[in-house]
Amino acid sequence: MSNLPPTPEASGPARWALVLSWAAVLLEGFDLVVLGSVLPIMLDAKQWGLTPMTASLSATVGLVGMTIGALAIGTITDIVGRRKALIYSVLIFSVCTALCAVAPSVLGFALLRFVAGLGLGGCLPTALTVAVENASSGKRSSATTMVMTGFHLGAVLVTLLGIVVLPTLGWRWMFLFCAAPVIVLLPLMVRYFPKSEAFSRGVKREHGGGGSLRVVASLFGPGYARSTVAFWVASFMGLLLVYGLNTWLPEIMRTAGYQLGAALGLLLVLNIGAVIGLLVAGKVADRVGVRPSTIGWFGGAAVLTAAMSLKLPGVGVYIVVLIAGCFVFGAQVLLYSYTGQFYAPSNRATGIGWTAGVGRVGAISGPMVGGVLLSAGLAYPWGFYAFALIGVVGMVSASLVRRPVLEPSAGVDDGPALTAELGVNRSSGR
Predict the structure, then answer these.
(1) Any idea what DSSP says for residue 344?
(2) Kind plus residue range of the DSSP H or E element containing 350
(3) Structural domains present in the chain
(4) Are the C-beta atoms of 207 and 215 separated by less than 8 Å?
(5) What number of helices (H) and strands (E) belong to the chain?
(6) Would the pTM count as exceeding 0.90?
(7) Is-cis flag, bond preceding 5, omega within 30?
(8) How far apart are CA 111 and CA 103, in angstroms?
(9) Which parts of the chain have pLDDT scores under 70?
(10) Reduced DSSP (H G I as helix, E B as strand, rest coil) percent helix, strand, coil of the chain, to 5
(11) CA-CA distance, 203 to 209, in Å (whole number)?
């Protein structure tokens, strides 16, 4: 039985699922990148007495919430269905983002970031599961990367918004503007988001009582344990790199002598590069295979991150940052695509959720590493070298993933999905 059976060209409901998942991830990009945009302003104003370290802690509690959300909601998605999980995730993080604008203290701000993180953590694995399950045959990697372009387009829009809004209206308005689109998105999701066919075919009944524990245990079934751990380690490294750069790149560049406007411009360029890289990465992975593409993208991320330490004349630094964005963010999304194609419908969202959730420990570490380096006066250029080493470890970890050998497989290494079923399915006689 194939984990990912061939599918026809996307139907109307499938197209709605992909478009609405993309829009949900767009709002996630708004929420996550807005913090990196407003932190320099909040630090300059000493809002609530913020320092680089306390600002790092405020960012960290949101990532803790995302870790819990990815682990819990990713698993719940395989129990209650994709539609409900995604709608409630979007509602949670959008409301809390809006409330950040009226936070009365650093404690209140951190609490709102934590609760928003629960929804943000659940949004990603659910949206990527939807992308894998609704993509046309042979286009699952590009469908996954296309959905994730929403995140980086959101980052680009927020950065542009910050350049206009921060000098005039202040940081509080940034949170309000970032939450406002949910007023349109939620009614569309309630009306048009389809139920998952894979879930409707009996995944819920398969898990039965104690379903959440059984579906998590299935990630370590025969032939899967090594690859599951390898996915987690690679995700840890990839998210450390992504969140470290997205949170602290403007401030690191300011320490290198760039003005705030130029530093925000580099964050903008980084995320434009991410969108370009995702479009290219998905096409490459569909053609040559998701496994070699993931390994190659992590290697490219390591090289280009180190290159960002160079002080190049003119537009040179922007070109390097643009190409770095292509690889840094593309590597992590290809890893998610690899994960989604590796597991079966019965535990796909759980597999992606736990890969993202365990990896969030790396995301938590990223802002903390940046904060420590900034406080010690070592962020430039040593921060870039540290992040480059992290990319190398991610590359090695991705190379350790191996398809199960329990049954003949079509070979996820070559791009198509695995055909080996999970051990938990065999144990139930299926």
Answers:
(1) -
(2) helix 348-375
(3) 12-191+214-427 (1.20.1250.20)
(4) yes
(5) 17, 0
(6) no
(7) no
(8) 9
(9) 1-11, 196-212, 254-263, 314, 370, 378-379, 404-430
(10) 80, 0, 20
(11) 12
